[in-house]
Amino acid sequence: MKWHCIPLGALQTNCYVLAIDNQKCLIVDPGGDAERLISAVNEKKYQPQAILLTHAHFDHIGALDEVREYFDIPVYIHEQEAGWLFDPSLNGSQFFQIGTLIRMKPADHILTEEKHMQIGDFKFQLLETPGHSPGSVTFYFPESSIAVSGDALFQGSIGRTDLPGGNHAQLIKSIHDKLLGLPEETIVLSGHGPATTIGQEMDSNPFLNGF
After folding, report:
1. How far apart are CA 21 and CA 63, in angstroms?
2. Which residues neighbour 38 within 8 Å (Cβ) at sequence distance 6 or greater?
3. Which helix (H) or strand (E) holds 34?
4. Other C-beta atoms within 10 Å of 37: how many?
5. pLDDT (tens place) for every residue of the chain, 211 residues total
6. If exposure means fewest CB atoms within 10 Å of the residue's CB, which of 55, 97, 156, 174 is most exposed?
7. How far lies 207's CA from each of 136, 139, 162, 168, in Å?
8. Which helix (H) or strand (E) holds 64?
9. Is 134 helix (H, G, I), strand (E, B) or coil?
10. Which pTM value belongs to this model?
11. H/E element, 126
12. Distance between CA 95 and CA 98 in Å, rounded?
């Protein structure tokens, strides 16, 4: 599986396009700049199958409606944050100086529990990794050794927990129980900054000392 990182929006949030040999792809966290994202997908001649959301903060959903309507594809989000898509006080757009309030349409599919999932030819695992926000999830593709972790785990850092619904102890537990148990060679695609690996973060992440 190929992956492309496209930083989008005011906070340059990492949007990921995950593609397989038959040109089918998944889009994860379309945070803004819809035209740029659409152009990038079309340039590769990819055929999007769905949009996956690691969580519903404004900087991860800013281009959601434009992208899903253009490609006519469904949206998946965890039930804990389904209502955040259309509530600026929950998705954070009400409190940040971004110039607009983010109100998106409801998701098509609500994720309620950890499970193995399949969308078209894509097979992956849904891992619940709350702490940065209550509905944060990680999409783990074991055959490709890729985990798209949203804002849970970064290179040398972890997600902030001072926003509504954030919980530091819960985030540390999520990282320890769900992410650090993955194979060390697993590539972690984070919501901001460069990619890393589970092994690298186990060895050098100062927030995870003792794990």
Report:
1. 26
2. 66, 67, 70, 71
3. helix 34-43
4. 23
5. 999 999 999 899 999 999 999 999 999 999 999 999 999 999 999 999 999 999 999 999 999 999 999 999 999 999 999 999 999 999 988 887 667 899 999 999 999 999 999 999 999 999 999 999 999 999 999 999 999 999 999 999 999 999 889 999 999 999 999 999 999 999 999 999 999 999 999 999 999 976 5
6. 97
7. 19, 22, 16, 11
8. helix 64-71
9. coil
10. 0.96
11. strand 122-128
12. 9
* Interior/surface letters 86-104, b for 16+ CB within 10 angstroms, e for the rest: ebbebbbbeeeebeeebeb
Tokens of 128: 């619940």
> Tokens 């926003």 correspond to what residue?
163
- Non-local (6+) Cβ contacts of 130 within 8 A are 80, 136, 167, 170, 171, 174
Contact 78, 130 (CB under 8 A): no
Lookup: tokens for 153: 């785990």
CA distance 196 to 71: 30
